[in-house]
């Protein structure tokens, strides 16, 4: 079953039991918690503050799970589903989330440095204060996601898709925007050495266009009188 097929659905415990991790975490407490969850009738995994390093959890369904403050450094999570999962403040440095489902996931203040998120579905996800520097988001769908104070310096957004995104990211000349398309609300803070400047409106459109993207910057929301 693909990650897309389970969006918005509760998968039965029987379906979950048919999935097994390719490799278990090195930490015995994280392994115990994962095994207990697989053997139980409970749907939501509580992986808060657990250390999952060394694991290969590719293809797992972690919809609505709790990974707050969890350590997922270098963990393989290819094609896994994190629909509505809480990954706030989780450390996913160098993790492989290629093709993962992160629809409506909470990634506020998470660390995604050098992580691979190519082809992920991040519709409606929240990335407030997230460190995604050096991460790869090739062909990622950010539709309706909120990126506020998100550090994307050195990130690769090749062929990523945006749609009415709050796009208040940090970027620099090493941020790849080739083929980036869609609509956003700015501004973007562009860093150059020790200095920085905010770009919005047509100036932001031109800056992205110079880097091979085609993004339309929308006027800011206005509160009805």
TrEMBL record:
Question: Which segment of the chain is annotated as a signal peptide?
Answer: none
Membrane-crossing residue ranges in chain numbering: none
InterPro entries the UniProt entry points to = 5peptide_repeat (IPR001646), Pentapeptide-BTB/POZ_domain (IPR051082)
| UniProt-recorded name of the protein | Pentapeptide repeat-containing protein
* Organism listed in the record: Streptomyces caniferus
Biological classification of the source: Bacteria, Bacillati, Actinomycetota, Actinomycetes, Kitasatosporales
